[in-house]
Design brief:
Cytochrome p450, 11% strand, 3-stranded antiparallel beta sheet, single chain, alpha+beta, globular
Length: 393
């Protein structure tokens, strides 16, 4: 009974949580005092411990990804439908296919860095971490370069969150997201129609030619794939690059090491994914009345699995508050777990690795500009910063 009472509680969410640089003190308190908590305003359960977060992410039969939204994607499908559709796009994300992108990613990175030559101050997010993944996914989808800024704006709105949970603010956010989704739908519809008449060597043309159970994808299905690839294909990678660089600035000894030995970049990225996950949470929906660790969940209720908290769980990670590039094992949940494990995880890590390595080669003695305040992205889903100002030389 005592354990059950510990697990059940009303969620006490500090005002401005999504503005907080590192909300891990709050995560720690919730893991210790109320690891499964209910928020009546959202009709939502919040889950904080590693083992519980992993269960929610893996058990698609009881915790469904189906949001019944207006723009379904792979993220909102469950097996067996999910498996059939995932097989279509997975061909573009095989290890061989990803590695083949390496020269182009390196060339793009160096083009961006060349444009910064002679500058003593730069913004890593605006100048490098934002444009690189947008260009990569845009080229994969076959969309023109002039639409990249538009893409990023739509993507930011779709994944944004409010700083409070007031009904008015939530309604305002939903209205903005609805418009952004509709704008994306209209744009991709035009791309799809062009590719039907004139196929190219890009993902959209591949999707148009693909079949599931002997049938071509519908327009709605094609649009959902494009939507997923755009949002998931750039937002996570931008934050991964920015978060990793910020963490290096906070740990100058590690930064000195990677300046001297670029082979350490991979290990730095792996630990950064745990320490400052670019995805902070994922939501699921209860499919049936059930008992979960002594807690009664009702069909239709939302469950928010806090990945950022799970990655700091003391029962799984030794000294989780430490940034340890030698950590092993390092079973972080930043790319999800189970059937919805992020399809683009290897692409995100490749882009981050190339980008950070080339920055270390090109930009000497980078230091965080501490005279400027960092602004956290207003979202409980993704985790990153709107800017990362640094000085060079």
């Amino acid at each position: 009974m005592e354990e059950r009472q510990k697990s059940y509680g009303l969620l006490v969410r500090p005002r401005g949580l999504v503005e907080t640089d590192l909300p891990h003190n709050w995560f720690k308190r919730m893991r210790e005092n109320s690891p499964i908590s209910f928020d009546p305003d959202r009709n939502c359960w919040d889950v904080f411990c590693y083992k519980d977060v992993q269960k929610v992410l893996q058990n698609y039969k009881q915790f469904s990804s189906n949001r019944n939204g207006s723009f379904p994607t792979l993220l909102s499908l469950d097996p067996p439908t999910h498996r059939r559709y995932r097989n279509i796009v997975s061909q573009a994300f095989t290890p061989k296919a990803i590695q083949a992108l390496s020269p182009r990613i390196k060339a793009l990175t160096n083009e961006l860095l060349a444009s910064l030559k002679g500058k003593c101050e730069i913004d890593i997010v605006a100048d490098i971490a934002f444009p690189l993944p947008v260009i990569v996914i845009s080229e994969m989808l076959g969309v023109p370069s002039e639409d990249r800024e538009k893409f990023k704006e739509w993507s930011n709105i779709v994944v944004s969150g409010t700083q409070t949970l007031s009904p008015d603010e939530m309604n305002e956010l939903k209205a903005k997201q609805g418009k952004a989704i509709q704008d994306l739908r209209n744009y991709f519809y035009q791309i799809v129609e062009k590719r039907r008449d004139d196929p190219k060597n890009d993902l959209v043309s591949t999707l148009i030619a693909a079949e599931v159970d002997g049938e071509k994808l519908s327009v709605e299905e094609l649009l959902s794939f494009c939507f997923l690839l755009l949002v998931a294909g750039n937002e996570t990678t931008t934050n991964l690059i920015g978060n990793t660089m910020l963490t290096l600035f906070e740990h100058p000894n590690v930064l000195d090491q990677v300046y001297k030995d670029h082979s350490l970049v991979s290990a730095v990225i792996e630990e950064s994914l745990r320490y400052r996950s670019p995805v902070h949470s994922m939501n699921r929906f209860v499919t049936e009345d059930m008992n979960f660790n002594g807690i009664n969940l009702k069909k239709g209720q939302e469950v928010l699995a806090w990945i950022g908290s799970a990655n700091r769980d003391e029962t799984v990670f030794t000294r989780p508050e430490n940034f340890d590039v030698n950590r092993s094992p390092n079973n972080y949940l930043s790319f999800g777990s189970g059937v919805h494990f992020c399809l683009g995880s290897q692409l995100a890590k490749l882009e981050a690795n190339i980008c950070i390595t080339e920055m270390l080669k090109t930009l000497p003695n980078m230091k965080l500009d501490k005279t400027r305040e960092l602004t956290i992205i207003s979202s409980t889903f993704v985790y990153g910063y709107k800017e990362l100002p640094v000085t060079i030389g």
